[in-house]
Amino acid sequence: MPEPSHPPHAEPPGSDDAPGRRVPARSGAPGLRGLAADIGGSFIKFAPVGLDGALGEASRVSTPSTDWDGFCRALHSLCAPFAEDLALSLSIAGIVDAETGVALSANVSCTSGRRLAASLEEALGRRVLVANDADCFALAEARGRGAARGVVFGIILGSGVGGGLVLDGRIVEGAGGIAGEWGHGPILGPIRLGGRDLGPLPCGCGQIGCLDTLGSARGLERIDRHLHGEGRTSPVIVEHWRAGEASAARAVEAWSDIMSGPLAVLVNATGAVLVPVGGGLSNSAPLIAHLDAAVRRRLLRRTAGPLVVPARLGEAAGLLGAAIRLEAFGAGSLPPADREPPP
Question: Which of 39, 217, 248, 260 pairs as cysteine with 92 (C-beta 3.0–4.6 A)?
């Protein structure tokens, strides 16, 4: 792909408007395992990955989410300082079919309908690996907590409800790449709250009664509005709940009751030994502890210690998960691009 005439300006994470430093140029592969990028609807976070798995100096550019050519130019500008024999591992907000490689992403719509890894390999001239961001989150959290064996079910409770499944330190993608996507499916019927029925509500996925409609941060806000007629944001609801306000407590209790049953069923079905939680609602440790207690009351196998816990890695989890996926490849010894990567 030709060099972009006006490459996007890179800036360090955490600084939205101050000029940042680009990742320093390096020649050749020595000292590096590959490159990693975490692609969200607003920003692309990028870092080189050392042979020890550590992230190098990170950069960030805006995501051209609706412009495929602009999207490729953004990635090209980030990767250009590095040798072409270094693979690029992506964590992306969306689903990637493990069999066809075709992506579906509401937040990065220019990637939808494309065989994403193959299309980017052609555009960038280097090997590309692609995985769902929730899968990468779960993989990084499992590694970060030393859970190399057993099942880790990482969940996202933010603007939506999502998740990723990791078995013995490896992502389980499942048919269509949707393993762990527990937020969607018509499982909620009418719920009696405050003397009135709430739902089932239509979901952005096209179904009705998904957990995503009531279990997300927006869902907590819908519950609160249904009960009290107020337009409070989820952080305000949680803050008032922690302060002992009765109306906020009713909303949080209803949310916890709605979420804990399905999550307990999933823990029973998968045998998960750990459920790390990311997304905006995970910023409240007391809220996640409240959900954990409700889930553990509903499990077949009772556990004394916490099971559902706040994520440790924060916003870096997606980038770290993408970096971990590079471990199958040694620097400068990548398999041919038309072969599937090792599991």
Answer: 39
